[in-house]
């Protein structure tokens, strides 16, 4: 199907660098008229471009005035203070745990101990947004008085009221007559 348009009398047609006025007879358009036509097209094109730029700018400045969330990525949740809860491992009984943490920016240091078994140690790491990554150093007395030590790499979500840290490999350390905790899960609440 071929679509043709009827020429509009007085319209200018440009073919191969030459301009012709359409109408009953073909007439060559002088060079100065081509320049005026080209300048008019350029001016209209620029006007449309400026209007589009203005509309895009207005749309970009508009938006939602909702306040940012309490914890965004890169903002450290404050977890300083005393925490109580449980420490569970796949090869030891559940024990009560207490942690006392200090915080400087995103850096965390502190201590922990168990009120139900003779385990204790240090905590170090960093909070990034609403998650913690760090070390849970372990020192425990086995039957017969042997002191067992090791370190668990822990990670997990944190908030200002609860934390859950896990370590699939558990405490890795030297030889110990008792099994070092494996598959750790530490659940605590802020006091």
Description:
Helix content is 16%, strand content 45%. It folds into two domains: 12-61; 81-190, Lipocalin (Beta Barrel). It contains one helix and twelve strands. It has 191 residues and is α+β, with helices and mostly antiparallel strands. The model is unreliable at 1-6 and 65-72 (pLDDT under 50). The termini are far apart. The chain has a nine-stranded antiparallel sheet with strand order 10-12-4-5-6-7-8-9-11, with no helix packed on it. A three-stranded antiparallel sheet has the order 1-2-3, with no helix packed on it. The longest helix has 31 residues, at 31-61.
Q: What layout of secondary structure does this protein have?
A:
Layout: E1 12-15, E2 18-21, E3 27-28, H1 31-61, E4 81-89, E5 92-104, E6 107-113, E7 119-128, E8 131-141, E9 147-157, E10 162-167, E11 172-173, E12 184-190
Antiparallel strand pairs: 1-2, 2-3, 4-5, 4-12, 5-6, 6-7, 7-8, 8-9, 9-11, 10-12
List keywords for this structure.
single chain, 191 residues, alpha+beta, Lipocalin, 2 domains, 9-stranded antiparallel sheet, 3-stranded antiparallel sheet, 1 helix, 12 strands, disordered N terminus
Number of helices: 1
Helix content: 10-25%
Radius of gyration: 37 Å
Domain unit count? 2
The name of the CATH architecture of the largest domain is Beta Barrel
Global shape: rod-shaped
